[in-house]
Every structure is written in C-alpha cells, then in structure tokens.
Amino acid sequence: RKEVEQDPGPFNVPEGATVAFNCTYSNSASQSFFWYRQDCRKEPKLLMSVYSSGNEDGRFTAQLNRASQYISLLIRDSKLSDSATYLCVVNPLTGGGNKLTFGTGTQLKVEL
Amino acid sequence: NAGVMQNPRHLVRRRGQEARLRCSPMKGHSHVYWYRQLPEEGLKFMVYLQKENIIDESGMPKERFSAEFPKEGPSILRIQQVVRGDSAAYFCASSPGRAGSYEQYFGPGTRLTVT
User: Fold this and answer.
1) pLDDT-derived band of residue B37, with 50, 70 and 90 as boundaries?
2) Does residue B1 carry a pLDDT above 60?
3) DSSP sequence for B56-102
4) Average pLDDT, whole number, for chain A?
5) Cis link prior to B8 (omega < 30° from 0)?
6) Is A98 in contact with B106 (Cβ distance < 8 A)?
7) How far does Cα A89 stand from its chain's mean position?
8) DSSP-assigned beta bridge partners for residue B64
9) Using a CB-CB distance cutoff of 8 angstroms, which residues of chain B are in contact with residue A104?
C-alpha cells in the first residue's frame, strides 16, 4: 500500500465549478499535512497546511479526518489558473525527522 | 528574491561524470531538504540537513550520492559517476527549523540529464 494515495485524475471541470480531491495516508502517527500544487513539473508550491479543525483560504477549503486517515481539498468557483497537479503531502515527524511524503498528485484541468 | 535558490537549473552530464547541484535556502531558514522527481513519478525524499549536520539520509541511494550543508555557502548534492537512471528533477526545500513550523518551501529545481 502506498503511504499517500490520490486519484490521479484528470479532473476536467468547467470554469466556475466546485471540485473536490481526496487523499488517504497509511501512517496513523503522521502529524502534519499539506496540499501543494505543481505546474508543468515546476517546483511544488505550498497551497495550504491542513488542520484537524479544517481551514479555509479564499476559495480553498482543506479538511483532515484523523480517524479515517483522510484529507480533502475543495476548490470553489474554479478558475482557469487553477489548472495544475495537486499534491497531497504528509509529514510523519518521527524520530526527529522532517521529511515530506508526497502523493503522486491529482491533475485538474479547468476549461472554458 | 528571498526564495530558495538552486543552480544550475539545467545540467547535462555524460555517463561516468560527476554532477554537483547547489541550493541556497530561503533567508532565515536553517534546514535544507533534497527531493528527487523521476519522470512521471512523485517526489521522493532524499536527505535532510542542518548546518554541518546530516539529520536524515534515509532516502539517499547507498552509493554515488552525497550531500553537505557547510557552515558557509550553499548545500551541495553530489552525484558521482552518473548513470542514465539519475536523470531527474532534483528539488531543494528549506524550512525555518522552529518547533511547530514544518512547512517546506521549494526551489525551482535542477533538471539533470545524463546522456
């Protein structure tokens, strides 16, 4: 089983649509969770951290369910510029380490 | 530009040569990480360093690869005797190193092509 699993997509949605991505992780001891976006194999850019209480940043909402080991990202009112690959990222923070474990990403294509 | 800097952005090496990749962390950051992204694959952790210390190298191949973060200057990822399978994008990231602050910020990457 992969440490972080995501549906690779692609998700093709019209501009203005709401789209949701899900992610599951296998290490129940994981402590920190993030969503990054990656454009055309450029560097990953931090989109948002994910907290147990859920957090929102403009059109983006992230949720964490520790019991189910499940993370979600909701994008409302999609823009063409949201087209990218969204990476679910987990940090076990074990043994004093601080290494990120990446999912393979979910591709989003927003169309006119 | 206060972001993570990497150079070179593109590097071409012939099989058997050495590759040196450099990374300067974001201003105020003391922790550096190296990740590798093979074609059509996700990013994989390689090594985590603080100044003059390797904290976690569990993702580094056992041979030919080494990393350092000297007291002065950038972090260096060195690949000796490169092979075609080393062709990949190598990303460096940095973080502040403060307790509770675990976000990592990535540089633009070095794309290594081995011919």
Assistant:
1) very high
2) no
3) E-TTS-SSSEEEE--SSS-EEEEE-S--GGG-EEEEEEEE---TT--
4) 92
5) yes
6) no
7) 7
8) none
9) 41-42
C-beta atoms of B43 and A102 within 8 A = yes
Give mean pLDDT, residues A43-49.
95
Taking the alpha carbons of B107, A110, A102, B78 in that order, is the dihedral positive or negative? negative
* Cα–Cα distance for residue pair A16/A21, rounded to 1 Å: 16
Q: A47, A98, A101, A104: best mutation site toward chain B, by most B Cβ within 10 Å?
A: A98
| Minimum Cα–Cα distance from A95: chain B residue | B56
- Residue pairs spanning A and B at CB distance below 8 A: 60
Structure tokens that stand for A47 in this block:
């989109």
User: How many percent of chain B have pLDDT more than 90?
Assistant: 84
Q: Which of A43, A96, A100 sits opposite B108 (nearest CB)?
A: A43
Chain B residue numbers touching A42 (CB-CB < 8 A):
108-109
Distant-in-sequence, close-in-space partners of A90: CB < 8 Å, separation ≥ 6: A3, A4, A25, A27, A30, A32, A33, A34, A71, A100, A101
pLDDT on residue A52: 81
